[in-house]
Structure formats: C-alpha cells, structure tokens
Amino acid sequence: MKSTVPSLVDLFSGAGGFAEGFRRAGFRVLLGIDNDPAAIRSYKANFPEAVALAMDIKDVTGALIEKLVGRPDVVIGSPPCEPYTGANPRRMKNPIDRLYQDPAGQLVLHFARIVGELEPKVFVMENVPGILDVKEELRRIFAEAGYPEIYFNVLAAEDYGTPSHRLRVFISNIKIRPRKLPRRMTVEEALRGLPEPGSGDVLNHELPSMSPRKARRVARLRWGQALIYYEGAEGRRYPNLVRLDPRRHAPTVLGSSRFIHPYEDRFLTVREQARLMGFPDNHVFLGGRDEQYNQVGEAVPVPLAEAIAWEVRKFLEKVS
C-alpha cells in the first residue's frame, strides 16, 4: 500500500528552510541536493532521514533521483537568484541572456529539466520577482517539460509570520494563495527569549567580532539606519549593517546581510539572524561563520515555506 504521506525532493536545497516548512506540513523529505558542501552538511544534520547530495545540478538526472528515492509527489527548489536580481550590479542587460547565457541563470533550465523527468504532481520553484522579466520564456520551458499551465505566485514573507521582509515569486503548476495573517511579527518578538550570546545553551549563538573603529561607528546608529550602502543594478543603492528597529519586521535577510542589534552595539549572531527567517532554534548551521550566515540568508523563510506547503497539501488531497 502506498504511503499517504506526501513525499518531497528538494533541489538547490541550501540548509533546508524550504524543506523545513514542508516537513511541518507533514511532508516526507526524501532528498536534498546542493553544490555547497557546508550547506549539505547542515541539511544532513537537520534531515537525517533524507538523502543529502553535494552535487552540481547539471550532473543530476531524474533517473538518478528515482533510483535513490523513487518518484516524489512534489519537487521544490530555489535556483540562484543573482542572475535575476536588481541587487546584482553585474546582472546582464538582456533578460533572455540572464536565462541562457549566465551559467548561474541556466540552472533554472536544469530545474525544469529534472521536473520534466520526474513528473511530480506539483513543483514549486522560488526566485526573485526579477525573474518575471522572462515569464513568457518560462511558460514555454515548463510547457515543454509537460506543464502547460503555470502560475507566478508573488508572496511577501512578512504576511505569513516571518519577522523580516522578503518578496519572492513561487513558480508552480498550481495557484498558491495562502491566507495572510492579521498582523506582522516584529524584531522584538522574534529575538525574545534567547540567552546572552556565547552562553553555550543555543546552537550558532556566538558573538561575531567587531573592530573598535566599527564599534564606535555602530554606537552612533539609530534604529533603521545603515552603516554602509552598496550599489546594485541600474544605480540602485542597498543598505547593509542596519540597526534593526525592534517595533517593525526586519529588512530582507540576504547571505551578505549583517544586522546590528536594536539595543546593543553588536552584530546579530547567526541564531538571531535565523530567528528573523523563522528557523526553529534546533535547526543547526554548519561550516564557517560566513557560510552559516549565508545559509540563513539564502533560505526560503520557514513560516512562508510552511504556508505554501499547506496549500500544496490541500491540492494533493483534492486530486488524490
């Protein structure tokens, strides 16, 4: 008898934020694949029951996945967003080139290829809204893979219980419209209850160092102010080293983001940053400190992933 628990394969898995949301909605995580060895070590630690592969997606086939874990009900994944995001000053001018010429941009094509080979009931691919510049091309690519109708579900993480802003598009063969929560979670609420950094009771909660010069500059920052700005595509400026406003949700957490604590003149720890993405405190991040921050910032926020997972689950129950 086939298990009624829906199964999942996770491409470009990172440390497993997307999969954690699905696990909370009762999915069985079969397999995670990423080319980052530290992220895959984290994935294996958090999903010991799953197969975790450190592999280049270009070398992965549907046949290999099927041989390892069988055919999943659902395939999720977050191909790199750098080729498509306005925050990247080196983003290619022509949107079609981003998809076909940029080696990182081409990874979206490999996601579609594997989905076509595995034929899941549902797929969900996360990326930045900038990928909508190639919307019609993506329709064509997924139609060729066997999914003639796809939906571009644009969702803001803060509407679903994530204490940080994040606007992302979830491309799927189903409509994903979770019900928004009536209120947004604040930084104050997200950071509540953690012990002092370095107390050893909580994973990934060590204090990062800060030079005396930077500490002097940080001490002058008020809530919402940034220490540095960098330039993105088309001359847009993006802040970093922002002192968080405890009364609001945080700005977008990126791999390169470092935030200043609202009340103390110090950086947030990896654990505090993970709290801003809705990770539970038992979700461990392995590798060097920068790799850990990167794994947090590149994840799909867990509360948003869970809201999506329940929508997918509802669909699966309807069609079964």
TrEMBL record:
It is an enzyme of class 2 (transferase). Keywords: Methyltransferase, S-adenosyl-L-methionine, Transferase. It comes from the Archaea. GO terms for biological process: methylation; negative regulation of gene expression via chromosomal CpG island methylation. GO terms for molecular function: DNA (cytosine-5-)-methyltransferase activity; DNA binding. The keyword Cytoplasm does not apply. Its EC number is 2.1.1.37. Coiled coil: none annotated. The keyword S-adenosyl-L-methionine applies. Belongs to the class I-like SAM-binding methyltransferase superfamily. C5-methyltransferase family. This is DNA (cytosine-5-)-methyltransferase.
